[in-house]
Structure formats: structure tokens, C-alpha cells
């Protein structure tokens, strides 16, 4: 295969949504660039318009309607290449505008030669698939574009009916798409023109690899393929070689682990047994602000949601063992601000565009540094300020040092008066007892419905629930 052509872009200026890294304790750093020539080039790219990238007027109007004021770096670099009919590998962090980077070229090509099953987008989670489909329909509203979401946890028959209406764009998780390719009569992707694999690194982390191989075998070789990923692991390299033809690689990150300059990060070094107390104290201290609390396990996610509700705090859980309607309902309530506390596993860490998140709390530290970056990336988006607080217990010191090492900076310790925290002890202890009782009832109800993770087809159907 011919060598991959590479382009590298300096990170965006802090005023725009970017992945540039800067220490919170040095606010003047962005105003003193070490490489003014590169920054000037970046500013020139930022000043481009969608029309200058080659996007037609109708789609430019859609961008304006959706509030896209100017193209992001990944859009500036990838859209012209995609419009030339080239395969693209896009390396950029979450929140960098990747969806529009692949959606706009596909929609523009669709307008030239409209046909059913024109584009397929593969995503790792159900929520991300729904979000991508909504973006396609919003951007293509003036063109009458029809998009269908094919994910696990939903009725196969209604999805088959939707596929029978021959939509232009299919956004799917791999497991459920393969079910339809194997079992839905009359459904074929032999005429597909565009394939997108979004969050490719996460698709492979979730062991979708064998399913992707099967899907690729039934797709036409004559197609355009876009692969977007936050990192370029050996697995993603293998996927690239198997599915792309002479691609152009576009990278908009200069560092593997970057956080935006408007994000303030700190940690609390506390005993494991007092984490609930400190969590309640922080939520009281930042009352009224929107908060995402990240947990390591589904069980703890549900327990903390019960505990906070017992204390009168409007918390809603989001994890992979909820029904699809419950998951979408939780996201809807949080987005509409009818609930301001979301307790979630890493199913909410990447890809989802949840506006106006003020604070991210890592109740449990993630197992690796990239996951930390993606979690805290839920706040301080599009140039807004945000706060990330991480609980570090006596068992987490080594893991936290690795995260700081990856970020290449030491983070500040959050000042939290212990005597004020301990005052909450009695109320929190009672809420913990209530949460334990509710968890027993919750587990019994789940048990009576049978094992949702049985082997065979149902196991494939459940693969898109969450990472890990």
C-alpha cells in the first residue's frame, strides 16, 4: 500500500474549542507563544469559512443554523481532502468537531448523486449513534436527508421497517448492524458509497474487531472510507490497512494527552471510606451547578444515584444495564437541566455532546490516562470554563501519578475543610443504609428478568452498551 500522507496542525487558539494544553496556574501562557509562525498559520486556518473549504451554500446555511461559526482545525484539514474523494484518517480528541468533518462531505456528495443506503457510520455506543444521526438530519435538513439509527436494545422489527424505507444514512453499532445484515431480508449494503468508523480506538477496545471484519467483507470495495480516532494504536493501524485505500492522515493534536486551557483540574486525597462524605460536601458546595460524576462500575453508579436521591439531590444514573429508553431519558433530563447531577460509567466519557457541564467529579479514577482526558473533556467545551475534581484514595496513588505524568504537570490539591465534611456523617450514613436497601431491591428485580448477558446473539446485541 502507498505510504500514508500526513498533515499535522498546531492546536487551536484557546478562544475556540481546542485541545491545547495549558496549566491553570499560568493564565498568560497562551498569550506568549513560543512559535508565533505556527500560531499565525493556525489563526489563518481558523479564519476560513465553510464556503472556502468547498461546502455548498445550502450546507453552509445549515452550519450557521446549528451555530457553527467557523470550521475547527480537524474540519479545515479533512473536509477539502474528503471532497476530493480521498480516504481520510482523522486523529483528534473528543469535542473537536469530528462529526461535521465527515458529515458535510458525505451530504454534499449525496446531493450530487442521491441514493438509498448512501452512507454508513459505525459508532461504539448507542448514545453516540443517536447523536450522530441527529447531526446528519440537522445538517441535511434543507436537503431532505433521512437517517436511521440501528443499535442494540431496540426492537428489531421496527428497525427492519425503518431500513425498508431506504434511508440515505445508517448510523449503527456493529453488533446490531451485523444482525440485520444476516437476518433482515432484502437489506444489503452492496451499493454503499461512504463508510465512517467513528471513535475507532474505542470500537476496538470494546472488542468489536471480529464484527468489523465481518461487516467489511460484505461492503463494496469501491467506496470512500473515513476513520476517526483519538489515538493511533496498533489495532487502529491494522484496521486502517484493512479498510482504507491510500488515505490522507490529518492530526490536530501535538500531544497524546491534552486538556483545554480553560479547564481547572485538582484532586482530593481522602480515605476510601470517606468518599461518599466528600462527594456530598462538594455537591452541596457547588449546589445548582451541572455535575457529571464518573464511576468505575455499574453497581456503584446505581448505588450513588440512590444515595444522592435519599439526600434530596436530583441525581440520575447512566450506565449500560439501563434500558435504551431509560438511557436516552436520563440524557434528555440532564441536557434540559431538569436534573443537574448525572452519575455515569464511562459510557458518558466520550463522544457525547452534553452542553453546559460545569463540573466533572472522578469519584473513581479511570484505569488509564486517555480515559481521564476524555472524562474531564465533558466540561470546559467550546472555550467555556470548567472544573474537574478527582478523588484519590490510599489505593490510587500510583494510578494518579501516572495520570499526572501523562499530563506532564502536577495538579493542585483541592482545599476541603475536613471538620465541615465530617458534620455530614450522620445524614450520609442514613442515606447509605437506604441506598443499600434500594440496591437489594434493584438487584432482585434485575435478577427476576433473567441474565441479559447470555451467550450467543444476545451477547452481540449487548456489546454496544458501554465500554468495559
TrEMBL record:
A motif (Q motif) lies at residues 48-76. It catalyses: ATP + H2O = ADP + phosphate + H(+). Residues 459-468 have a biased composition (Basic and acidic residues). Residues 48-76 form the DEAD-box RNA helicase Q domain. It comes from the Eukaryota. Pfam families: DEAD, Helicase_C. Keywords: ATP-binding, Helicase, Hydrolase, Nucleotide-binding, Nucleus, Ribosome biogenesis, RNA-binding. Residues 10-40 have a biased composition (Low complexity). One of its GO terms (cellular component) is nucleus. It is found in: Nucleus. Residues 79-250 form the Helicase ATP-binding domain. Residues 262-422 form the Helicase C-terminal domain. Its EC number is 3.6.4.13. GO terms for molecular function: ATP binding; hydrolase activity; RNA binding; RNA helicase activity. The keyword ATP-binding applies. Its main location: nucleus. InterPro entries: DDX47/Rrp3_DEADc (IPR044765), DEAD/DEAH_box_helicase_dom (IPR011545), DEAD_box_RNA_helicase (IPR050079), Helicase_ATP-bd (IPR014001), Helicase_C-like (IPR001650), P-loop_NTPase (IPR027417), RNA-helicase_DEAD-box_CS (IPR000629), RNA_helicase_DEAD_Q_motif (IPR014014). CDD domains: DEADc_DDX47 (cd17954), SF2_C_DEAD (cd18787). Residues 448-458 have a biased composition (Basic residues). Belongs to the DEAD box helicase family. DDX47/RRP3 subfamily. ATP-dependent rRNA helicase required for pre-ribosomal RNA processing. Involved in the maturation of the 35S-pre-rRNA and to its cleavage to mature 18S rRNA. Interacts with the SSU processome. This is ATP-dependent rRNA helicase RRP3.
Amino acid at each position: 500500500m502507498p505510504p500514508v500522507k500526513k498533515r499535522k496542525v498546531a492546536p487551536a487558539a484557546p478562544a475556540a474549542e481546542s485541545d491545547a494544553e495549558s496549566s491553570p496556574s499560568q493564565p498568560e501562557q497562551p498569550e506568549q507563544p513560543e512559535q508565533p509562525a505556527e500560531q499565525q498559520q493556525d489563526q489563518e486556518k481558523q479564519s476560513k469559512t465553510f464556503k472556502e473549504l468547498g461546502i455548498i451554500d445550502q450546507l453552509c446555511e445549515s452550519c450557521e443554523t446549528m451555530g457553527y461559526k467557523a470550521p475547527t482545525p480537524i474540519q479545515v484539514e479533512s473536509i477539502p481532502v474528503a471532497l476530493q474523494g480521498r480516504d481520510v484518517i482523522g486523529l483528534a480528541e473528543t469535542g473537536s468537531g469530528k462529526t461535521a468533518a465527515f458529515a458535510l462531505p458525505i451530504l454534499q456528495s449525496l446531493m450530487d448523486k442521491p441514493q438509498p443506503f448512501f452512507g454508513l457510520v459505525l459508532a461504539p455506543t448507542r448514545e453516540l449513534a443517536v447523536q450522530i444521526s441527529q447531526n446528519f438530519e440537522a445538517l441535511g435538513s434543507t436537503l431532505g436527508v433521512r437517517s436511521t439509527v440501528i443499535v442494540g436494545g431496540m426492537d428489531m422489527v421496527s428497525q427492519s421497517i425503518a431500513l425498508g424505507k431506504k434511508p440515505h444514512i445508517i448510523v449503527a453499532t456493529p453488533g446490531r448492524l451485523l444482525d440485520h445484515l444476516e437476518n433482515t431480508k432484502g437489506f444489503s449494503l452492496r451499493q454503499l458509497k461512504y463508510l465512517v468508523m467513528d471513535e475507532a480506538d474505542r470500537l476496538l477496545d470494546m472488542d468489536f474487531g471480529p464484527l468489523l471484519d465481518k461487516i467489511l467483507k460484505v461492503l463494496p470495495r469501491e467506496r470512500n472510507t473515513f476513520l476517526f480516532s483519538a489515538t493511533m494504536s496498533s489495532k487502529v493501524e491494522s484496521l486502517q490497512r484493512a479498510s482504507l485505500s491510500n488515505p490522507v492522515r490529518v492530526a490536530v493534536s501535538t500531544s497524546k494527552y491534552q486538556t483545554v486551557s480553560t479547564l481547572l483540574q485538582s484532586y482530593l486525597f481522602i480515605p476510601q471510606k470517606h468518599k461518599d462524605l466528600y462527594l456530598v460536601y462538594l455537591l452541596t458546595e457547588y449546589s445548582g451547578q451541572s455535575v457529571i460524576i464518573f464511576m468505575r462500575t455499574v453497581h456503584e453508579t446505581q448505588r450513588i444515584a440512590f444515595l444522592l436521591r435519599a439526600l434530596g439531590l436530583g441525581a440520575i444514573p447512566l450506565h449500560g444495564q439501563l434500558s435504551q429508553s431509560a438511557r436516552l431519558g436520563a440524557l434528555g433530563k440532564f441536557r434540559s437541566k431538569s436534573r443537574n447531577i448525572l452519575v455515569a460509567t464511562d459510557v458518558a466519557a466520550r463522544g457525547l455532546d452534553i452542553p453546559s457541564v460545569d463540573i466533572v467529579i472522578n469519584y473513581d479514577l479511570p484505569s488509564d490516562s486517555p480515559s481521564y482526558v476524555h472524562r474531564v473533556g465533558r466540561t470546559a467545551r467550546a472555550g467555556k470554563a470548567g472544573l474537574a475534581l478527582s478523588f484519590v484514595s490510599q489505593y490510587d496513588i500510583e494510578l494518579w501519578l501516572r495520570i499526572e505524568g501523562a499530563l506532564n504537570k502536577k495538579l493542585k490539591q483541592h482545599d476541603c475543610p475536613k471538620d465541615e465534611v465530617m458534620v455530614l456523617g450522620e445524614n450520609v450514613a442514613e442515606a447509605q443504609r437506604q441506598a443499600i436497601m434500594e440496591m437489594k431491591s434493584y438487584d432482585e428485580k434485575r435478577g427476576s428478568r433473567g441474565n441479559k448477558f447470555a451467550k450467543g446473539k444476545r451477547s452481540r446485541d449487548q456489546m454496544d452498551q458501554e465500554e468495559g
